[in-house]
Amino acid sequence: VMKRVLVVDDIPSNRKIATVILEKFGWQTAEEPGGPEALARKDLAEFSHILLDINMPEMDGIQVCHRLREQDGLKHLKIIAYTAHAMEKEKSQIMSEGFDDIIIKPISVDTLLAVLNNVSP
User: What is the DSSP letter of 44?
Assistant: First the structure.
């Protein structure tokens, strides 16, 4: 099973934390600083998962998720939202936008791996 994650977050340290954890557990990773950059990648179909920050300037994670879901070649992608702000109501709102799961920051190793394995095909 392909284990490739694209980590999209406007804060470099957040991307680093996620990629370091993932690579330690055998995942291939790539990083992008925002939605437009992520959507512009030519190799999106080669990823199995996208870890998508919700609060980003320019284009938020929900907009990015919608764009990804509109593309036929990306139906297999598991899109995981991650955000520092999530009351129960917000969590269900975010999930209803087309995400496969949600992680609340700060990211823990256990949570990140559990969610990725949970949504894996």
Answer: G
